[in-house]
Structure formats: C-alpha cells, structure tokens
Amino acid sequence: MTLIFRKPLPDVERPEMPADVVIVGGGPAGMACALRLSQLIDEHNAKNPESQLSKENIYVLEKAREVGQHCLSGALLDPRSMRELLPGFEKEAPLDATVSKEAVYFLTEKGKLKFPITPPPLRDHGNYVISINRFVKWLGSKVEETGITVFTGFAGSELLYDGDRITGVRTDDKGVDKENQQKSNFEPGYDLKAKVVILAEGTRGSLTKQLIAKFDLAKDRNPQTYGQGVKELWEVPAGRIAPGEVIYTMGWPLTTREYGGAWIYGGKDNVVSLGFVTGLDYPDPRLDPQRVLQDFKQHPFVTKLLEGGKMIRYGAKSLPYGGWWAIPPLAGNGWMIVGDSAGFLNSARLKGIHLAIKSGMLAAETAFEALKKDDSSAATLGAFQSKVESSWIKQELWKVRNMHQGFEHGFYAGMFHTGLQMFTGGRGLRNRYPGTPGYQHMKKLAELPANGGAEAHLLGPAKGDGKLTFDKLTDLYHSGTKHEEDQPAHLVIQDTNICNTRCVKEYGGPCQNFCPANVYEMVDDVEQPNGKRISLNPSNCVHCKTCDIMDPYQIITWVPPEGGGGPNYDGM
Amino acid sequence: MKILVCMKQVPQKDAPLKLNETGTWIREDVSYEVNEPDAYALEEALRQKEKHGGEVVVITSGPARAQQVLREALAKGADRAIHLEDNAFVGLDAFNTARAFAAAIKDDQFDLIFTGLQSDDYGYAQTGVVLAELLGWPHATIIMQIEKNESGIRVKRELEAGYFQFVDMPLPAVLTIQSGINKLRYATLIGIKQAKNKPLRKVSLAEVQSALGANLQKIERLYVPQKTKNTEFLEGPAGEVAKKLAEKLRNEVRVL
C-alpha cells in the first residue's frame, strides 16, 4: 500500500528540540500516561536523591486549540482505571451522574421491546455519566500541575525514523497556504527528537497508520473494524430523563444488515447525550450515518423524550471495535501505541475510556523503566506488550474477542454467535473468528435495488425539520468546527480520477454520505465523463477519520490540518 | 520602547452561551479565547519591540482561567505578565477595570499602552480610553498603523467609509488597536516552553481595592434574542407598493 501524505515543504530548516518522552495526543490515554509517568518519577526522585529524573523534557502534543476539544464519546466512565491512577478521583473530577437505571430496547419502526434483563455487558451500575470533554480538560489540568508541558495546537505530522527505530516526531508546519507556499507568518514544524514516542492519537491515528504501514504491523492480525458514532447533546424539559439514566437501543432504523445501535444518557441540568453508532461495514453506499441518527430521533419513544428540547452540540467520531485480534503489536524500538490508536475498546460494553487510561498507565510504567535504564529499544519497551497481556485489559477484551466478527453476516447470525460466545468465554465456534475490513462489505450500486429496498428509509441526506431533526449543515454548525481556511487540503486523495470516473459510477460517491461534516461533494462538471467532479470543503472536517476508513478504494488519507483547527466539543 | 498590552479573555465566538441563574451574565462552562483585537495589539507591540527594542508587558484581570491569555502572550514573545486575579474583576465596569490597571502599573514607566479596539463580549470600547484619562495621557482609537518618529509617533486611524486619519502624538500614549493591523504570528514550541519561566506577577483584589469605586455601569438583565418571522404581502400597482414599502422600511423596520 502506498501512502501519500501532505508534501513536506522543501528546503526548510527545522528547529530541533530534545525530548525524553513525546506523547502524541492529549486524550484520556495520553493524559493518563503523562500523569502516571510523573507519579513514578516523583516516587523515584523522593527515594533516589542522587539519581534524579527530570520531567523537563516530557511533552504531550495535542492538535486541538485547547485540551479536550476534540474528545467525543457517549460517555460512560468505568472508574476502574481511574481509581488506580488517582484514588479518590471522584471527589474532584467532573462527573455528571452515577448510573442509576438502565434499560435495553429493541426498536421496530413504531414500537419497542424491552429486554427482560439487561445483558451483562451493558450493566452499568457503578459507572459514571461524564462529559469526556470536561473530564479530559480536568485530567489535562492535573498533568500541567506536574510540570509536564502540554503543547496544545500542535499535531504530530510525521514520525522520524532511523532504520527500524523511531527517533522522534515532527510537528505540523504552520502558516502554509493552499498552494503549499509559505505565508509571511510561516512557522516550521519542530523535530522533537525523542527517546520514547507514545502514540495516543485516538481512533485511526495518522502517525499510527504510518507506523503500521511502515513496519507491516497489521500482518497476522484481523483488520481493524470501525463504527461511526454521531452524537447530539440536547437540553430537554425537566423530568424527561433522570440524571444517570442509561438507555441502549438496537434495531430500527437499521435493518438486520447493518451493525449498530443507539445510546441515550441522562446527564445533569436536563442535558441528554444521545447518539447512534453505525458500523462502518454496511452494504449500501447511499447510507448516511448522520441521517440514521435523524431517523432514530423520529421514533415515538425518542421523540417523546426530546420534544420541546433544544439541540446544543453535535459531533461525530469513528471508534475501533475490531477487538483483541485487531490490536497491532504494541511496542518496538522507540515507540508504543495506546488507547484507541491501538484499538483498546470493548465493543460489547461500548466502552473504551477505562481501557485507554489503563493502557496509558502501563505504557508510562514501561517508559519510566526505559528512562531509568536509558534504553528505549524494543527489548525494554516490549515489556509494555506483556504488561497489557497480564493486566485486566486482556482479561476484559479476551472475553469479547470474537464479538464484532460474529456480526459480519448480519444481525441474526451476530446474536447467535454472541450468545454462544457468552457461554464459551468468548470462544464461540472457534478461538479466533476472522474479520474483513468494513469497506469491503460495501456493494456496488448495480448490485443493489435502485430504490434501496429494505434500506430505502436510511439512504440519502436527512432533510431536517429544524426542531427535532436537522440536515447535515445545521448539525455541523453545532460542532463549532473551525480551521484556518488558507492551508493545503488535509484530506489527501491519491488519485481524484478514481473519484470522478470510477467511484461516481460504481458507488455514487459514498464519501458524500458517510462524511458527517459535508467535507465531500460531487459537483457538476461537464468536462468529466460522468458529469461530476469531487470537491472538498476541508474546513468542515470534524476529525472523525471515517473517510480514511470507509472509502471503498482506500485512496483517502486523513492528515492533521494546521494545529488548533477542528471541532469544539465543549461539554460533549 | 516599553509597551503594556491590556488583554482580555472572552468566551469563544461560537461557544453555546447559556444565561446564569440571575440572568445578568452567561454561565462559565464555555471555552475561552483571547479577545481578537487584543491579539493584534500584542502582535503590534511585539513588532514595535523588534524594531525599536524595549519590553512588552501584558496585563489582564479575571479569575485563574484568564492566566491562559497571559501564557499565550508570553509564549509569543511578551517579556512578563501581570494578572489581577479575582473572580470579582469579571463584574467590574470599564471605568473600574481601568482604575485597577492604573493602580497595578503605578510603579512602571511605559511609553505606550495598547488595548484592543473593544472586547468581543461586552464591546464597550472604553477601558483603553478611560485608562488614558486616568493617567492623563493622550490617546487615539481604531489604530491601523504606528510609526515612531522624532517627537513621538504617527498613527493611522480608521474612519468610516474607507477614510483614514493620520495623527502625530507625543509619548506616552494609549492606543486602541484595530483587528487586521498586522498578521498574527504563531506560538512556537520553544516559546511555549520558555513562557513557563517568565515572570508573572499576581495582583490581588485587595492590592487595588482602594483605587476602585462603585460600578457606574451595570448589567440588569440579559435576554436571548427571540427569533420571529413575519411575512406581509403588499398589493396594488407597482408605484404604490414601492411607496408603501419605503414607508414600512423607514417607519416600522427602520432600516432606511
């Protein structure tokens, strides 16, 4: 596979900065990693006055303008790892509510069936409803208190190599115009020469993707599979849902051929988090996940909850749910991968924050040993792999290792396998179910009924009534996304001829549908053989990475835009 | 030249705003950013310093979160910062904010004080001007260009309808800076790191309390604008309709 990235500017002298540890990404995994590392260094320094370790050259890079602004999740927090990281954290962390009540429904178009018991993976008593934005902001403030520097507004744009060793991270160039020319305020990216690079970029990390391709790390693994979560935050009239009330639904509007479901969480101050996760392995290229959420809201059960309320925030993000078999090797010469970048997400429980935090902590313990020994070779950092495998991360993920693969042939087969796996410790019919990359499930238009068949109600853009349902642009406005307009496109399409000649005919330009932010448009162009040409609005991007994942030809590469740009997920 | 830049932290432009319980201001759980014209004021100060030497000092008032604007300014090249830190500063009117600033800098000798043209939240455009009066210095507003000359400075003011005014002023002086006067620079990694060790003086409310008086201006109540839509068809011959339309636009809608 050839990977094309934004062309680095030629003949640029780049400042260098030495670093002990660079953590790329300031989400739950990255921040937990930084915090744990600081704790270990403090303990060490207290005991060893003669051999002090410094935190001076430990850095966190965060592409958002402010910590937490690109974090999006439901979110429910399983407190297990936080209790290990900061015992008693509940006293000071921003938690919205303790889960008090939970229910799972199977929806038909107008009706609903309540599951008589909540399936064990979805039992959430003892978990917290949180805003991951506020939670990570708080975690970030704890990190800054330790003296570790968090560089906000800086993305990791390239990895620096020396043979099979990662030697650092290059940050993004700033002040480059659309034509790839330097503007008067051009500021070159830095080369952070690091002993240890920890990739905590979140879902479908762009450096992680480079690393996996370069060292062929996906070999012998299941392909990573993803879903796209589309979320709206609502303020509803009092009394509709209790703080801490948790509702999951399956079924409508999806048919048995798509994987996915919805969540509804009651937060404080009558704020409701609701969203729909659509598996990025659906067959019909005309399906639009943002529309799926709009359809879901029109179910009488959901309408009743939201009526008279107001949508206050919108966002979307992909999530990795390939499970244990899709996790790449976790460490090598100079590097480790944590959190969603590695795929630490329990798809049966729809939870990954606690695993992200735990993986960050274990990586910190490994990095600490490397600093002490002044050796960050694969021999030392490889300990991270065994730490994960002997921790509760593996115990938890092992039980659901075949969960998502079981659904590859539809809902009924999925329920059968899930049931079987529950009674066999996750095994099901065999120890390892194989997986297929989601985009390969997409069918060509010629193989599908022209009117959409059973999926007809899911296809095409949502119209929106402006009160309960919204078209994509209205939703997008509520993501608060913003980018410097005059910069090179950060969505790199290897060959736009494929879009204009093949894709438009074969799939009808599915990027227009799966992108939750109207970045992609097929515009009229008489000079093209099919009368359509691809056109990009990169400034709309909400950094969900779906295009990088779901494009059927795998020719789109998402690279970080100029640091500081992106959504503003305040309160999400 | 020794330049003071007054900066303010304001809610982000696209932040979803909610009123507080008393309806007198917004709830604080939003993201904040540097007031846009203040960012240009800082950039202009840094450029003047690069040309003529000297020192750039930044000042703000507000709760702990407001320190962020000072950190950003220090990262971009300001030499030191002054933070009037207290929640109470949020509720001060422009007159009192100017009094607090004047009291906080009484031991400093500045050649120039820059403020942004106005704040993105209150939009009073008063603090800089009042500060000049309190100090007894000349001031000029809506500045688009600053040239140092032998007797002081020559500034270009933006007037209406594309007109500009050039003014020669002595120093010291207060200038309120218009957005777009220059092109903002980016903070660098090394700048951000060095900013951690630059001096940041905290001033408590008690230290400036004696300079303050009662607020002269107070927000009684904020309202969220209610969107209304009203359609009316004017019928009749074109000439009459045009007449009616002009009348409505002048007297009812009042846009003419």
Walk me through the structure:
- The complex is a heterodimer of chains A (572) and B (256).
- By secondary structure, chain A is an alpha+beta fold.
- Among the domains of chain A are: 16-74 and 136-217 and 328-398, FAD/NAD(P)-binding domain, CATH 3.50.50.60; 405-432.
- Chain A is built from 16 helices and 24 strands.
- Chain A has helices at residues 28-47, 80-85, 132-145, 206-214, 289-297, 300-306, 339-342, 353-373, 378-381, 383-389, 392-398, 411-423, 472-477, 496-506, 511-514, 546-550, and strands spanning 16-24, 58-62, 76-77, 97-98, 101-107, 112-114, 128-129, 149-152, 156-162, 165-171, 174-176, 182-187, 191-199, 226-235, 245-251, 260-266, 271-279, 310-320, 331-332, 335-337, 491-493, 520-524, 532-536, 556-558.
- In chain A, helix 8 packs antiparallel against helix 10 (383-389).
- The two termini of chain A are 36 Å apart.
- By secondary structure, chain B is of the alpha/beta class.
- Chain B folds into two domains: 2-211, 3-Layer(aba) Sandwich (Rossmann fold), CATH 3.40.50.620; 226-256, no CATH class.
- Chain B has seven helices and eleven strands.
- Chain B has a nine-stranded mixed β-sheet with strand order 9-8-7-10-6-1-4-5-11, with helices on both faces.
- The termini of chain B are far apart.
- The A-B interface holds A 15, 17, 65-66, 69, 134, 149, 151, 153-154, 171, 174-175, 183-185, 187, 190, 192, 312-313, 478, 480, 482, 568, 570-571 and B 12, 14-16, 29-31, 33, 183-190, 192-193, 196.
